[in-house]
Write a structure and sequence with these properties.
The protein is an alpha/beta fold and 297 residues long. It folds into 2 domains: 5-177, NAD(P)-binding Rossmann-like Domain (Rossmann fold, 3-Layer(aba) Sandwich); 185-285, Orthogonal Bundle (N-(1-d-carboxylethyl)-l-norvaline Dehydrogenase, domain 2). The protein has 10 helices and 10 strands. The chain has helices at residues 12-23, 35-54, 90-100, 119-123, 157-169, 185-201, 207-218, 224-231, 233-247, 256-264, and strands at 5-8, 28-31, 67-70, 81-84, 110-112, 132-136, 146-150, 173-177, 276-277, 284-285. The strands form 2 sheets. It has an 8-stranded mixed sheet with strand order 3-2-1-4-5-6-7-8, sandwiched between helices. Residues 287-297 have low confidence and may be disordered.
Length: 297
């Protein structure tokens, strides 16, 4: 099957998914409400394509496919699959998804890249819930090999088959899981990040010490706080609130340090500062207890 992928939302994840598809020869229609965001996404995709090929994660022998950008949702009509990648606020996702069903042809899989909102909760917004499922791409999508595919209770066989075929074309390994808040990865990861941040908040260890234990003792490629900076601390806090609201588990309540960092605009790699500072020289720790010593600054 020949694919054209529509992506809704041209932020960090939307641009990363676009890079993955274009680098694997799949044309992309990228839609966002903000023309400036689309312009920045085009530049980001060009940079990421070069990096992905340099690192050997995108094939150099495959000619990059076309990228069309638009602020008009009607532009997605020719797509064979749609990925929703707007910010992790359920109401915003619902508004977008409600419109999508009326634009694409019946039988076109509609995928949410939500980090934590249950797929079946969002499926209520669609005229055809059987066409709907989740694919949790890890950041950056063009470098991380595996994805978590979430089959909701109403996801049809046909939609799942088409999406798995597309993901294979994109060079992804897949694991299909059931539905629920946070699915597998984020149900575990977000709580781990929250506890790691609380350890720093309590003065038990500095961010670099926490991450060194996870990489050195457990073999993680990146520790929980470096991972949080990569995800974006604002996205972490949003996901924790979703998990708290849907499980009632107080372990998901964002700790003071995370909330303070987000309030201060220290969102991680994308702002140059989170638990670590980022520059051309690489990350460096920003301290043992940021709440106690002047907030997130």
């Amino acid at each position: 099957m020949t694919h054209t992928l529509a992506i809704l939302g041209a932020g960090v994840m939307g641009a990363g998914i676009a890079t993955l598809a274009i680098g694997r020869g799949v044309p992309v229609i990228l839609v966002d409400l903000d023309e400036d965001v689309l312009t920045a996404a085009r530049e980001r995709v060009d940079q990421q394509l070069r990096l992905g090929r340099l690192m050997g994660r995108l094939p150099r022998e495959v000619e990059a496919a076309g990228l069309v950008t638009s602020t008009d949702l009607a532009a997605i009509a020719p797509a064979t699959a749609v990925v929703e990648s707007v910010t992790e606020h359920p109401d915003r996702k619902v508004r977008v998804l409600t419109q999508v069903s009326g634009v694409v042809a019946p039988g076109t899989p509609i995928v949410t890249n939500t980090s934590a909102v249950p797929v079946d909760e969002l499926a209520e917004a669609l005229a055809r819930p059987a066409d709907f499922l989740g694919v949790h791409f890890m950041n950056p999508p063009y470098l991380v090999e595996m994805v978590e595919v979430v089959r909701g209770p109403r996801t049809g066989d046909a939609a799942l088959v088409v999406v798995l075929d597309l993901l294979t074309l994109l060079g992804k390994k897949t694991v299909v899981v059931g539905d629920g808040p946070g699915f597998v990865i984020n149900r575990v990861l977000q709580r781990m990040i929250n506890e790691a941040a609380r350890i720093v908040q309590d003065g038990v260890a500095a961010p670099a010490e926490v991450d060194a234990l996870f990489t050195g003792c457990l073999g993680h490629t990146t520790g929980p706080l470096g991972t949080a900076d990569l995800i974006g601390l604002d996205n972490v806090v949003d996901s924790l609130h979703v998990l708290l609201d849907r499980t009632g588990d107080e372990g998901y309540r964002p700790c003071e340090l995370l909330v303070a960092k987000v309030k201060a605009g220290d969102h991680g790699r994308k702002t140059g500062r989170g638990f670590f500072e980022y520059s051309s020289g690489g990350p460096s720790s920003v301290g043992r207890n940021a709440v106690e010593h002047g907030g997130a600054r």
